[in-house]
Specification:
Elements (H helix, E strand, L loop, with lengths): L1 H16 L2 E2 L14 E2 L5 E2 L16 H13 L5 H7 L2 E2 L3 E3 L2 E3 L7 E2 L12 H12 L3 E3 L5 H9 L4 E6 L6 E8 L2 E7 L1 E9 L3 E6 L4 E6 H10 L4 E4 L2
Parallel strand pairs: 4-7
Antiparallel strand pairs: 1-2, 3-12, 5-6, 8-15, 9-12, 9-15, 10-11, 12-13, 13-14
Helix pairs in contact: 2-3, 2-4
Length: 235
């Protein structure tokens, strides 16, 4: 019995010494791979051209970010095509004195071609990615921040939900969808995460049409405030 314990300790020391360790997400669930290489201090996916959502899609940041993701994967599609393809629902309206509407996890709320549109969350975007990649979407929403960065370090960009210009988030409005109460966080935004350094993340921001560096802690906080939503493509 003592020999088994000693061997187990030695194996653990060896694994740690070469920088390999089992990883656990913040929700306590083991990642699919038992072992993963230590996250590099910096990494960037090159060759992804930033796209601007304006002027055609003033509220189409999610679709513009998805266009960049699909273009990286090799799909010849533009933001306008995705804007037409996404399933839409009307903006919330008052019915019998209460604001009611559909869920952004089922539809794009409003119209991305209009400045009065709201936006859309991860599930419809993953569904849209599936449509253009024969079911290759990888919805990693609610993963740890470490796993988000490791996904990028594995060479795969990720559509992530944050806020415009990384502003502090707040509840802009709320409405009911049957028994569900939906709180719309503002200023809701989506960007394509393409890299990181020791202190920053690198994003393609459709609001500016540029590649930008953002403080890593601020980005993580804004990402958390939007529900840790993240959609990518399985290789």
């Amino acid at each position: 019995m003592k020999k088994i314990k000693i061997i187990s300790i030695l194996i653990t020391i060896i694994l740690v010494s070469v920088g390999i360790f089992s990883t656990i997400d913040t929700n306590g669930i083991l990642n699919k791979s038992l072992f993963s290489i230590i996250l590099p201090s910096n990494y960037k996916i090159d060759g992804i051209t930033p796209l601007n959502q304006f002027p055609e899609m003033p509220t189409g940041c999610e679709l513009t970010s998805t266009t960049m993701l699909l273009n990286w994967y090799g799909v010849d599609v533009n933001k306008e095509e995705l804007g037409e393809a996404i399933e839409k629902a009307d903006v919330p309206s008052y019915i019998n004195g209460s604001l009611q509407g559909s869920s952004p996890n089922e539809y794009f709320i409003g119209d991305p071609f209009s400045s009065n549109g709201y936006g859309v969350y991860h599930k419809p975007i993953a569904k849209l990615v599936d449509k253009y990649t024969d079911g290759k979407s990888n919805d990693i929403t609610d993963c740890s921040f470490n796993k988000l960065l490791r996904t990028v370090a594995n060479g795969t960009p990720v559509v992530t939900w944050v806020t415009i210009n990384m502003k502090e988030s707040s509840v802009g409005s709320s409405w009911t969808n049957g028994d569900e109460t939906i709180e719309w966080i503002i200023p809701e935004h989506a960007v394509l995460l393409v890299g990181f350094t020791k202190d920053e993340v690198i994003i393609n921001d459709p609001y500016t049409g540029t590649e930008d560096n953002v403080d890593k802690d601020i980005f993580e906080d804004r990402w958390n405030s939007l529900g840790r939503q993240a959609v990518t493509i399985s290789k």
